[in-house]
Amino acid sequence: MADGLELTGVSVAYAGRRVVDDVSLQVRPGTIVGLVGESGSGKTTLARAVVGTVGLAGGTVHLDGTPLARRRSRTERRAVQLVQQDPYASLNPLLTVGRVLDELLRVHRLAERRIASDTAGAPDAGAWRRARCAELMGLVGLEADTLGRYPRQLSGGQRQRVAIARALAVEPRILVADEPTSALDVTVQRTVLDVLVGLSARVGLGVLLISHDLSVIHAACDDVAVLREGRIVEHAPAARFFTHPSDPYSRRLLQAVPRLPERAP
Amino acid sequence: MRIEGLRVAGETELLHGVSLAVGAGEAVGLVGESGSGKSLTLRAVMGLLPRGLRVTGGTVEVDGRAAMIFQDPLTFLDPLVRVGDQVAEVCRVVAGLSRRASRVRALELFADVRLDDRAVLARRYPHQLSGGQRQRVLLALALAQEPDLLLCDEPTTALDVTVQREVLDLLASLRAERGLSLVFVSHDLAVVAQLCDRVVVLRDGEVVEAGATRDVVARPHHPYTRRLLDAVLPLPALAGGRDG
Ligand SMILES: Nc1ncnc2c1ncn2[C@@H]1O[C@H](COP(=O)(O)OP(=O)(O)O)[C@@H](O)[C@H]1O
Ligand SMILES: Nc1ncnc2c1ncn2[C@@H]1O[C@H](COP(=O)(O)OP(=O)(O)O)[C@@H](O)[C@H]1O
Ligand SMILES: [Mg+2]
Ligand SMILES: [Mg+2]
Fold it and tell me: What is the ipTM of this complex?
């Protein structure tokens, strides 16, 4: 089996009702796969299946060729990270951004691991963590002084980038982003998408980008999968999908998107 | 409707002299980022400003009656009353219809907003409906007030794209059939462009640009309008076209 995330025939049921049904898809390192579907189609449930917070009624999830069980080890949990729609709900209001990141690095003993594997003169763990926090801010396009701020002092777009930095802190292989821009103003959507695109290219992260918004998927993704009532009805390279969708439902979705009239060049 | 130099203030001033005119049967878009004052403008017209805020200057004139629909119908609909009864109640009060006639009228309005299975739906409670159905019920409630002007505050923002398209088409045909005037608020210029001949751009409680939608989109004057336009993520044209 190849590198990255591989779902094979994944199904999830709530109280006997299948809301994700026989889904297969792959997310290779350094690529962004878009999962689009209307509300209730099963996108969030699939995200939860990928990160292991809901059990499978069928199918398998592999990471780099190794099957992931429902009960995952700490290392396995680190490897697949989730970013949700509302970063406010998931950030502790009482801690500064720097404190949250530092705590994560400490809990996972990331500094110690790094320093142990580092043959060149090792700095102390505290200094390593401080440098890493600044580096994480850089990766998501935030100023280093953001580390001193509390969530309420940040804009929606900044908070979402902090949530991405937090997911990145534990050095995941795969990032699942569930509607990461849906709560944001259109003018800041793009900055968050640019961060995801930059990360997949620069650190080889594989991203599963979930959205109901086709323009968001188009702005960021290499491949597109369309989910309808729990099933994938089309899975195609973005370059083909947006001009030549093969499934009638995909086509209907694309036709419904409001588009601007011609702009002067 | 004519708004001239509208000022609204709480502890600080929030609208700094907003002007906006809507001709009979015309559809005008009001766009801007969140916090720019779109909702306050509509609420001021309806006399529905939040507590603590008041009109401190300017004039608002409406020829005829105005009604309003909102982004989240659940905050407006009564959770404990069947939706058919809610619409019938407004018909009774506004048109002075009898109990029985108002029920018949409510079903007619449900037909006008293209709700299927009307008799069944009318007996449901708001939480038993889909988002698109709720927005249609809200629209039926607004139409029950027999308005000449409909103020729409981001009514499609929370809807799926296919449902959004249906609601936009519905508003366009109600406008054509009834000669309704519309003010349509959105943070998304692409949505506004679907429906509105003219557009007014609001930033921090001030109008920065106004004009024919086509012109504003093709040749924006204000840098803020340009920013809003640049924020619309483009999609390539679909082979075979819209209805192919
Ligand atoms: N915890 C749950 N228990 C029961 N049903 C659920 C639960 N979570 C989601 N569902 C149902 O599963 C379906 C898919 O939901 P979801 O995955 O949230 O869709 P999406 O994210 O695409 O909007 C919906 O019909 C939803 O009502
Ligand atoms: N009840 C209120 N009290 C004080 N300020 C308010 C109140 N409601 C809205 N505002 C402020 O008025 C401004 C405009 O709000 P609003 O009209 O709701 O914006 P929009 O609809 O464009 O997102 C915002 O800065 C908002 O914080
Ligand atoms: Mg969801
Ligand atoms: Mg508003």
Answer: 0.83
